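Structure first, sequence second, as always.
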């Protein structure tokens, strides 16, 4: 038995282990809450190690239950690992682990830590399932697992504004799920199958018809809502400020990518196919998200709400790169997706540390925190420069590649717009640095101090990644993580033959 044959059996572990951990935590919570910290963090550490161990396996297909597909009728459930899904696996489990380490101290102010860990692990299981599923129905099932857990986590503090934000998020998430499910039903009625590769095989030589166009629209709206793309973003500015800081990091750094952008890109590139009109529509959405997001962010004085709008803007960069439909553009888009998960998660953890230390997230009530919270201030400055695209931090390189891709494809106005949005982002975060960290501390902040070690460790680790992924390890990151994902999307229809063989 070769190494690939053995490695395929790792794939169900990415779903089974967090599900088992969620169940185990509820069993042992009465014995010791400290064990819950250990179990949750150990599971995420192991999942990250396993995801990194799969870098040498370009394609793995696991047939659940050993069911082999009949010709043209793949009844069995597939879990599929390729370069694109591996990139998302690494992002999910890396940011998940760092957020959980931050949670050890941060979540002490909440009353039910074991329940938090249970919901967190269910969210991880759902996201891992989405990126590994090889059929439409199970993408939908795992998407709902992740979404329902995230609704509960947004409302975890049970204050009025948190419950209101969670309710709005749930209502819009339910509408999105209805659109997605209707699209899946239409696809099944056309093709007679739900397997992504087999759907692609059936549609490969078909002329684009009205039902297929309708399906594309339904998926665009459904996954657009899940991914908070403009104009489907209304839930995100409320959900991010209301959620605990580690959950805000997960929502922005991971969730909107896994159950929004990833799912839409995977289905369109590797199964249904992308028409020039659809790509143009996505470019318009990307431009609107980039520009409106940054201008709305600039007007905010709530730290976390400001970051929420910047999430929308930065995901506009990701979509701009991917939907240029060129190898260089896809490279820039996927690289920015990885970078965004790092620097935006760090910024939300910074905001959590500020709230933890001062009790406020209003910019005008803060100031001078560099003197009282130097680690938070320093890491926030690194993240701010990264998201603004200042060299040599990681955000600069991915934005540069996207701008070069725009120029290469003769979209000169898009390149200029990307530069303008980056400048506006820098101005916005200089405002954050001025009002939160620079100057002299206000009288009521004189006795504040740095946050506990676990929270500092998480922020330092992400700041370190912002530096080394840019200036030091750029070629290695590109070769190991980004290039295989780019090849998957550039050669999207090869997914069909690779999976079905």
């Amino acid at each position: 038995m070769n190494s690939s044959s053995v490695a395929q059996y790792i794939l169900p572990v990415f779903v089974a282990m967090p599900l088992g951990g969620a169940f185990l935590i509820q069993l042992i919570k009465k014995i010791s809450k400290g064990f819950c910290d250990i179990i949750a963090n150990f599971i995420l550490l192991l999942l990250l190690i396993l995801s990194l161990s799969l870098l040498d396996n370009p394609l793995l297909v696991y047939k659940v239950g050993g069911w082999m597909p009949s010709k043209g009728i793949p009844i069995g459930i597939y879990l599929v690992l390729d370069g694109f899904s591996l990139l998302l696996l690494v992002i999910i489990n890396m940011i998940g682990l760092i957020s959980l380490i931050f949670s050890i101290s941060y979540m002490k102010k909440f009353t039910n830590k074991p329940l938090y860990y249970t919901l967190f692990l269910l969210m991880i299981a759902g996201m891992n399932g989405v990126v590994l599923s090889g059929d439409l129905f199970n993408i939908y099932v795992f998407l709902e697992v992740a979404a329902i857990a995230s609704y509960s986590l947004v409302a975890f503090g049970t204050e009025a504004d948190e419950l209101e934000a969670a309710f709005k998020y749930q209502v819009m998430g339910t509408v999105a799920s209805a659109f997605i499910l209707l699209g899946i039903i239409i696809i099944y009625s056309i093709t007679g199958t739900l397997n992504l590769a087999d759907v692609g095989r059936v549609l490969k030589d078909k002329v684009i018809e009205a039902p297929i166009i309708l399906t594309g629209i339904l998926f665009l709206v459904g996954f657009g809502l899940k991914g908070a793309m403009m104009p489907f973003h209304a839930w995100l500015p409320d959900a991010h400020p209301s959620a605990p800081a580690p959950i805000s990091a997960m929502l922005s750094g991971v969730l909107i990518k896994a159950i929004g952008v990833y799912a839409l890109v995977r289905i369109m590139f590797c199964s249904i196919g992308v028409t020039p009109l659809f790509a143009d529509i996505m470019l318009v959405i990307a431009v609107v998200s980039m520009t409106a997001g940054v201008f709305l962010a600039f007007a905010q004085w709530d730290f976390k709400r400001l970051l929420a709008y910047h999430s929308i803007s930065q995901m506009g960069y990701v979509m701009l790169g991917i939907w240029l439909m060129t190898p260089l553009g896809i490279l820039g888009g996927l690289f920015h997706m990885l970078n965004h998960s790092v620097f935006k998660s760090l910024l939300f953890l910074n905001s959590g540390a500020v709230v933890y230390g001062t009790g406020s997230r209003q910019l005008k009530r803060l100031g001078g925190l560099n003197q009282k919270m130097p680690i938070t201030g320093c890491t926030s400055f690194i993240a701010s420069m990264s998201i603004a695209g200042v060299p040599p931090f990681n955000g600069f390189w991915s934005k540069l590649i996207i701008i070069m891709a725009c120029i290469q494809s003769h979209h000169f106005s898009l390149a200029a717009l990307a530069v303008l949005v980056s400048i506006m982002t820098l101005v916005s975060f200089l405002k954050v640095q001025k009002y939160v960290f620079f100057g002299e501390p206000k009288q009521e902040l004189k006795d504040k101090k740095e946050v506990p070690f676990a929270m500092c460790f998480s922020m330092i680790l992400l700041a370190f990644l912002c530096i080394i992924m840019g200036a030091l390890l750029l070629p290695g990151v590109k070769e190991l993580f980004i290039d295989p994902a780019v090849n998957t999307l550039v050669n999207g229809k090869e997914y069909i033959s690779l999976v079905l063989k």
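Margin note: Residues 10-500 form one domain.
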